[in-house]
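Team,

Forwarding the record for the chain on the shared tracking sheet. I've put the sequence and predicted structure together so nobody has to dig through attachments.
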Amino acid sequence: MTIVDTVETTAPLTAQDVLARARAAVPLLRERSVDIERERCLPADVVELLRSTGAFRVALPKDKGGPELNPMEQTQFIETLATGDVSAAWCAMIGMDTPLYAKFLGEEVAAELFTDDDMVTAGLILPIGRADRVPGGFRLNGRWGFGSGITHADWVVAGAFVHTDGEPEASPTGQPMHWRILIARRDQFVVHDTWHTTGLAGSGSRDYEAVDLFVPEAHSFSFATATVTGPNSTPDAILRNMPGVPLGLARAALDHVRDIAVNRTDRMTGVPWSEIYRIQYTIAEAEMELGAVREQVYGSLRTQWELLNAGIELTPDQRVATVLARTNAYRVARSIVVKLCDLVATSSIYKPSPLDRWLRDAQTMRQHVIAQDQVLQSVGAHLLGGTPSNPFSLGIVQ
């Protein structure tokens, strides 16, 4: 019997279904965490476990038989999985974007490509590659990094600037460069085993390369010119659930140390940890910080969701509220794990202590393009009328 056999596999229909299945998967993911990290990608049975929770169909619209979780529910789903294994939650967060890509590709093309509701899409949408126009489509060349989940993906997206007759093509919106996202089967790319990292080892975020790959124009889209409507179809929709990973990591680490503190006694003094001031203070401080950032994340998502559903255009402050909350979640999660490692001290550095893995995971995810300090520059520039260095982190597509 595999771990998948212990989870009901009937297709989930509601948010309650998938959230319950995520909770049921947590102990199973914890059992496999060491294996996930050692293999540097998700083992096949872990992928099937995620599939059985509905991880890759959570954004599927209800009119297509999906649960269509809103951003708060998606974030809660990822947060729950992350308390089991951070790399698995990261891959679920990436893989659940397939229904969003389907909307931008159009119903007919999506039906042709995504023949199964649980198909997984991986890849980097930022324009790292080059797409040269040819009859019927593009010749795609380039090498992209950070293809999280590519080892188990069905389809791969790749962002590229479009060229015509060897020259950069202007965007229909007036920008000097035309950015498109192209999609092709995973086996059409060369995947390079480059993912030897400090943390998030199990995400399998390898480099991938296209060499004169023909992609039909219908298998590509541009955020800037798309006519897709609805609050769940904006370019930043793929960013909204990302805080779930650091929130779940911090929750798991804090619960782990609280369990230790209840049963441990200081070896030098014989005083129970539960009676030591610095232990009490650190646990309370970490709970305070996690609770505050969690409210910031979910509160900003709720406000944004209500405004989008009401058709109200976001002000600059309203636009960046979720961005600040997301960035802060990654910061606070790392800070909490560092404090907890300092509290537990030397025993935290020995494998297979999960604190060692959580610390490395927190450090690695903090380096993601949407969690770096330069995001704050982009927020400040947006609020002051300047030029953001990373406009996509704000959900702005040029």
